[in-house]
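Researcher: Please predict.
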Amino acid sequence: FRIKHIEDSGLFLTTYTGILNTSGAQGAYTYQDVNTTNKLTNTSRYTISPSKNPAAWFKVFKEIEEDPSKIVSGIRTPTNNIPIGNNKAALSIDYFANSQIMIGKNETLNDYFANKASNIAIKGQIADITKNSHEQILKSLTDLRLSIYGVNKDE
């Protein structure tokens, strides 16, 4: 996969995650722009191409494992404060992933992604079977051609 466009409308991608330098359209990452990587921050903290098994490099801090309420996942209040540990943002994301959203015949986003992964696996299996079938047909035709070359028309 590749990320085609990232744009921050607030502080999440600029301040909290530190991915982008500035918010808004002027600070957006767009894959079509040759110099777009300049809009990303500190190149030593990310990779342009996917690493092999990137999930193996992640580790949850011990403090968070012991007390998940220390995760700052609140949503800004009207007074511009972020309540610590209310998990409102995380719960909203989880609700969105499991809510009833019809995409084709899939009821939720989780169903959609599971269906897409299954389709990719099936197409890979079909491609492998088709490749083997084509190789067998090619071998059969090559053997037939070689057997015809060995026959003299005067015999």
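Model: Helices lie at 12-16, 62-66, 88-98, 109-149.
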